[in-house]
UniProtKB/TrEMBL annotation:
UniProt entry keywords in alphabetical sequence: Membrane, Transmembrane, Transmembrane helix
Keyword Ribosomal protein: no
Span of the signal peptide: none
Record-given protein name: Transmembrane protein
Source organism per UniProt: Streptosporangium amethystogenes subsp. fukuiense
Transmembrane segments: 32-50, 104-123, 135-156, 191-219, 239-258, 313-331, 337-360, 372-391, 411-430
C-alpha cells in the first residue's frame, strides 16, 4: 500500500497593520518641513515666555474701560484711538473685555493662537513662492524670531494691530500669488477681502493693496517685461479688481477723516521738522537696520516694555551687512533691485510716514519703538527671498553662475545661526525690561477690594497712579473708568455717579479702598471758635476754586442738633445735602461745576447747624495728594 502525503490547507497571512498618517503629519517626513515645524514650535515656546512676563499696560486699560462705557455700536467701533482707526480691533477688545475684564490669560490666549496661525501661514506662503526647499528656512527664521516683532506681540494694545496685520499680509499675498498664477479670479477678490480685514485692524492695512500691486507687477506676472510696462498691463487686464481696491481705499479714507474728530488732540497733526528728522533717523537709521540682523541687543526700560538702544557698532555693522546683501543680490539675481525698492517703499510709506504724521509733532523717541516696524519683518523676509531666490516657475533668474551648492549651504547655515544667536540675546534682554508685576498686583488688589465691598459703598473717582496710566489720558485714567469693570453692576454705577456720603472711599496707590479726603481749598473755624461765621444763613468762601470734571469733590464738617438741609452753590451748580444729627459729622459730595468761590446756604436759617470745616478740590486717600 503506497503512502500518500496528506495535503494541508494553507494558513492565511496575518492581516498587515497599516497606519495612515494625516497629510500634514506625513508631510513632516520631508526634512525641510520637519525643520520648519521645529522652528515654529520653538518660536511659539519663546512667545509663551514673552506672554508670561507681560501684562496689561496703559492703552490696554483704556480699552477695557471704554468697553464698559459703551455698547457694541457702529459709533463705538469707528472711534479713532490716538490716531488709529481700527473698528475690528475695537470690536475684538470689546468682546474680550465683556467676557472677562482684565483677564490676561484670555487675551494672551487669543494673541498666541493668532501668532500660531500666522507662523503656519507664513510657512505656506514661503513654500508657495519658492517651493519646499531648504533655502526657505532662513527666511522663516527671520519671520519667526525677529526681535522687531516681539514688543508689539507682548503688548495687547499693539498686538491687536500688529498680529492681525501680519496675518493679513501672508493671507493676501498667498491669494494674490494664486491669482497671478492663473488659478482663478476668486483668489484676486479674496486678496481684496483680506485687505479690507487689514484696514479693520490697522491703519497700515491701506498699504497692503500697494504691496500686492508692486509684487504682482515686479515678480508674479510678466517678469521679463519692464516693471512699468508690467504695471500698465496689469491695470489694463484686471481693471475691475484694481478699481475695487481703489474704491475700498477711498471709502476707508473718507470714513477715517469723518471720524477723526472722535479723538480730539490725538493722532494726525502737522509734524515738527526737527522732530521728524530725528524720528526718521532713529526709526529707519537705527531701529530697523539693527533689528533686521537680530538686534538691538540693548533696550531702555519703559512702562510698555523697552525702547531699542542699539550700539553705534551694531548699527554700522547692520548697514554694512544690508549694503553687502544689496550689492551681491543685484549683481547675481535678475530683478533683485525691484525687491529692495519694494522693501524701501514699504518702510517709507507704510511705516515711516504714518508714524511721522501721528507722532512727529511732539517726540522723536517713538523712533526707538520697534512696534512701528513690526509688520516690516514679513516684508523684509519676502523681499530678501525675492532678491535671492527664483519664484516657482521662474527661469533665467540669475545673471551669472552661483557658487557651489555646498558653499551656499554653509553660508546660509552660518548666517542663520548667527542671526538666531543675536536674536535670542536681544529677546532675552527685552524680557528683562518687562515689569507686569506692578499692574498685576494693583488690579488684583482692586478686584478683591471691590468683591468684598458692601453693596452700598460709595467710591469717588481718582486717577490711577502715574506708573500705571499716564496723566496725558485725562479723565480716561480715572478709577470710575478703568476699575469700574471689576465691580458689580450696582457699584459700577455709583463709581461713575458717586453720591454724597459720610463714608466715601477712594482707591489708594496700591488698589486698596481707603477713607477719602479732599486736597485743595480748605477752611476751618478759628482758634477758640465753635463754628465758622455765617451771614443770613450763608457762608461764602471766595478763595475756593473748582476745576469741575469728574474728579472734583467737596467736604463739609459740621455739628447739628437735628437733621438739616443745606445747598452748596458752585458756579451755576446747586448741590442739596441732607445732614444728620451729629456732634461731629463729615460729608463728602461730588462737584462738577467750574467756579471760583463757593456758597453754603442753610435752607432753614433757624436750623441749629454749626460748620466746622469746608474743603473743595480733588478726592484723595486720607493724608494723600493727587496723583
Amino acid at each position: 500500500m503506497e503512502a500518500t502525503e496528506t495535503e494541508r490547507p494553507e494558513r492565511p497571512e496575518p492581516p498587515a497593520l497599516r497606519i495612515v498618517l494625516p497629510g500634514w503629519l506625513a508631510a513632516l517626513r520631508s526634512p525641510v518641513l520637519l525643520g520648519a515645524a521645529l522652528l515654529i514650535v520653538a518660536s511659539l515656546v519663546l512667545r509663551l515666555l514673552i506672554l508670561r512676563d507681560s501684562y496689561f499696560v496703559e492703552d490696554d486699560l483704556l480699552f477695557v474701560g471704554d468697553a464698559y462705557r459703551s455698547d457694541l455700536t457702529l459709533d463705538f467701533v469707528t472711534r479713532v484711538h490716538k490716531g488709529h482707526f481700527m473698528p475690528g480691533a475695537l470690536a475684538l477688545t470689546w468682546v474680550l473685555s465683556r467676557i472677562a475684564p482684565y483677564d490676561w490669560l484670555l487675551v494672551a490666549g487669543v494673541t498666541f493662537v493668532a501668532q500660531a496661525l500666522f507662523s503656519v501661514l507664513a510657512l505656506r506662503l514661503l513654500r508657495n513662492l519658492f517651493g519646499t526647499r531648504p533655502a526657505i528656512l532662513p527666511l522663516l527664521i527671520l519671520i519667526l524670531f525677529s526681535p522687531l516683532a516681539i514688543p508689539a506681540f507682548g503688548w495687547w494694545a499693539a498686538a491687536i494691530n500688529a498680529v492681525p496685520l501680519q496675518l493679513v499680509l501672508v493671507l493676501a499675498l498667498t491669494d494674490q500669488l494664486r491669482f497671478s498664477r492663473g488659478e482663478g479670479g476668486r483668489y484676486g477678490w479674496r486678496a481684496l477681502a483680506w485687505c479690507g480685514v487689514g484696514m479693520a485692524f490697522s491703519t497700515k492695512g491701506v498699504f497692503v493693496t500697494f504691496l500686492l500691486f508692486a509684487l504682482t507687477t515686479a515678480f508674479l506676472r510678466e517678469r521679463e517685461t519692464g516693471w512699468i510696462a508690467s504695471a500698465f498691463g496689469e491695470v489694463r487686464r484686471h481693471w475691475r479688481l484694481w478699481s475695487a481696491h481703489v474704491l475700498a481705499l477711498a471709502a476707508y479714507t473718507v470714513l477715517y477723516l469723518a471720524r477723526r474728530g472722535t479723538a480730539p488732540g490725538e493722532g494726525a497733526s502737522m509734524p515738527d521738522p526737527d522732530v521728524t528728522t530725528e524720528l526718521l533717523s532713529l526709526l529707519l537709521g537705527r531701529t530697523f537696520p539693527s533689528g533686521a540682523i537680530g538686534g538691538p541687543i540693548d533696550w531702555s526700560p519703559t512702562a510698555v516694555g523697552g525702547l531699542a538702544e542699539p550700539s553705534d557698532a551694531l548699527v554700522i555693522g547692520s548697514w554694512v551687512i544690508l549694503a553687502t546683501l544689496l550689492v551681491v543680490t543685484v549683481l547675481h539675481r535678475r530683478r533683485a533691485l525691484r525687491a529692495w525698492i519694494v522693501l524701501a517703499g514699504y518702510l517709507l510709506l507704510a511705516d515711516a510716514v504714518p508714524t511721522v504724521i501721528a507722532r512727529g509733532s511732539y517726540t522723536s523717541l517713538v523712533g526707538l519703538e520697534t512696534r512701528y516696524v513690526a509688520d516690516a519683518v514679513v516684508i523684509l523676509a519676502i523681499c530678501l527671498g525675492l532678491a535671492l531666490l527664483p519664484v516657482e516657475g521662474e527661469s533665467g533668474a540669475y545673471r551669472r553662475a552661483l557658487p557651489a551648492p555646498s558653499s551656499l549651504s554653509l553660508v546660509a547655515g552660518l548666517t542663520s545661526g548667527a542671526y538666531l544667536i543675536l536674536s535670542m540675546v536681544s529677546i532675552g534682554a527685552y524680557r528683562d525690561t518687562l515689569t507686569g508685576d506692578r499692574v498685576r498686583a494693583y488690579l488684583e488688589t482692586a478686584r478683591e477690594q471691590l468683591a468684598a465691598a458692601p453693596e452700598n459703598v460709595v467710591i469717588y473717582p481718582t486717577p490711577l497712579p502715574d506708573d500705571i496710566v499716564l496723566p496725558v489720558n485725562g479723565e480716561r485714567r480715572l478709577s470710575s473708568h478703568l476699575l469700574a469693570p471689576l465691580a458689580r453692576p450696582a457699584i459700577r454705577v455709583r463709581m461713575t455717579h458717586p453720591e454724597p456720603s459720610e463714608e466715601a472711599r477712594v482707591f489708594d496707590k496700591d488698589g486698596k479702598l481707603v477713607p477719602m479726603s479732599v486736597f485743595g481749598f480748605f477752611a476751618a473755624r478759628g482758634e477758640g471758635e465753635r463754628c465758622m461765621p455765617t451771614l443770613d444763613g450763608t457762608a461764602f468762601f471766595p478763595d475756593a476754586i473748582s476745576f469741575g470734571g469728574k474728579a472734583t469733590a467737596g467736604a463739609l464738617a459740621y455739628i447739628s442738633d437735628r437733621p438739616v438741609s443745606v445747598t452748596v452753590e458752585v458756579g451755576e451748580e446747586r448741590i442739596v445735602l441732607s445732614l444728620k444729627e451729629t456732634s461731629g459729622g463729615l460729608v463728602h459730595f461730588p462737584v462738577t461745576g467750574v467756579s471760583r468761590g463757593m456758597n453754603i446756604v442753610m435752607n432753614d436759617p433757624t436750623a441749629p447747624l454749626c460748620l466746622t470745616g469746608v474743603a473743595l478740590g480733588a478726592p484723595v486717600p486720607q493724608g494723600g495728594q493727587p496723583s
